[in-house]
Amino acid sequence: MTKKSLSLAAVLLLAAASARAGKMRVLTTTVYTASLAKTIGGDKVSVESLVPPGFNADNYSPRPQDLFKIHKAKLFMMIGLNLEDWARDLVSAANNPDLVEAELYHGIKLLDKPAGSVDFSFGDIHPFGNPHFQTDPEAGRILAKNIAEALGVADPADKDLFAKNLADFEAKLTVAEKGWKEKLAPYKGTSILTYHESWDYFAEYFGFPIPVPPKTIEEKPGFVPSPRRVEEVIRLAKDKNVKLIVTEPYYDVSIAQTIADRLGVPMLNFDLYGIGLDPKETDYISMVDDVVSQVAQKLGGHGH
Ligand SMILES: [Zn+2]
Predict the structure, then answer these.
(1) Can you tell me the distance from the alpha carbon of 170 to that of 141, in angstroms, rounded to the nearest whole number?
(2) Which residues surround ligand 1, an ion (CB under 5 A)?
């Protein structure tokens, strides 16, 4: 039988059979939760992130193959909080009644939660709170715990192994956190300003005040700032003694650079979805390691 003559149904059956024989197929929406799932799942799982490295999960456009990946998966883990609004329709269209789904934000103390009722007419892309957890190690710890739990639901037979891998990860993280805090301690209390609200948890954890206003360079999450907004941001940032501008490659880096130049402070352009692209970032801990090193370097005046 040639490959061509296989019907789609037959291909699906073969895929299901090979999945049963081997590792559990796990899907995440981000590269950093995929990394945590690999760490906790070990050799029991094959893990893939739907959003590839180097792409922003905030405004990802699903590709045709994503449907097939969800169809074949056993476990699908999202961050939640509307970060993956684009994934809802995919899951219902994927025709996978056995799929185990998990939202990973549970237990994290949310920042930027709107006080009143949610008004979608303003187009706020984070209507239920800030979903950008990746650079807060304590959020990473909670995500890892939630991932271990979800893996155990999808594959109860390997629950003990996942618990052991989680404990190993937590121990490593505790050691790493001590080093990160020491490295950034000299700069604690320094005001920073970010393009999008992707660093709020980092700023809170390590003690870098983000002045409000302007809060972010964006006037509203997901909107490119107008020239009038840029001037306002520069004025406010000067007033509040901002010492570092932070952006990610998905945004208008030239605006961030202009603001940094006008303030005479360094700018950091860091890909928060870069695990697997940057050789220094092979997993969650080495990614946070890289963030901490680059922030320290910029604030120490060596990376201007
Ligand atoms: Zn966002």
Answers:
(1) 7
(2) 58
Q: Do 113 and 142 fall into the same domain?
A: yes
How far is ligand 1, taken at its centre, from the CA of residue 128, in Å? 11
> Based on the domain organization, do 73 and 196 belong to the same domain?
no
Identify the domain containing residue 50 by its residue range: 3-178
- Answer whether 78's CB lies under 8 Å from 104's CB: yes
123 and 225, same domain (yes or no): no
Taking the C-alpha atoms of residue 194 and residue 218, their distance in angstroms, rounded to an integer, is: 9
Residue 259 exposure: Cα atoms within 13 Å on the Cβ side: 35
Q: Which of 154, 178, 202 is the last residue of a domain?
A: 178
Share of the chain above pLDDT 90, in %: 81
Q: Where is pLDDT greater, at 20 or 162?
A: 162
Q: Is the pLDDT of residue 5 over 80?
A: no
pLDDT in the model for residue 62: 93
**How many Å lie between the centroid of ligand 1 and the Cα of residue 186?**
29
Q: Are residues 262 and 125 part of one domain?
A: no
State the CATH number of the domain containing residue 229: 3.40.50.1980
Q: How far apart are CA 76 and CA 67, in angstroms?
A: 12
Residues 88 and 161 reside in one and the same domain: yes
Token pair of 180 as six digits: 């990160």
Q: How far is the CA of 226 from the centre of ligand 1 (A)?
A: 18
Strands 244-247 and 192-194: parallel
The alpha carbon of 283 and the centre of ligand 1 are apart by a number of angstroms equal to 22
Instruction: Report CA(105)–ligand 1 centroid distance (Å).
Output: 14
- Average pLDDT, integer, range 240-248: 98
Ligand 1 center from residue 210 Cα (angstroms): 16
- Residue 90 CA to ligand 1 center (angstroms) comes to 20
User: For residues 253 and 247, is the Cβ–Cβ distance under 8 A?
Assistant: yes
In a domain, 35, yes or no: yes
Confidence of residue 143 (pLDDT cuts 50, 70, 90): very high
For residue 68, the model assigns a pLDDT of 96
pLDDT digits (tens, 9 = 90+) for 94-109: 999 999 999 999 999 9
Looking at the fold, whether 152 and 59 belong to one and the same domain comes out as yes
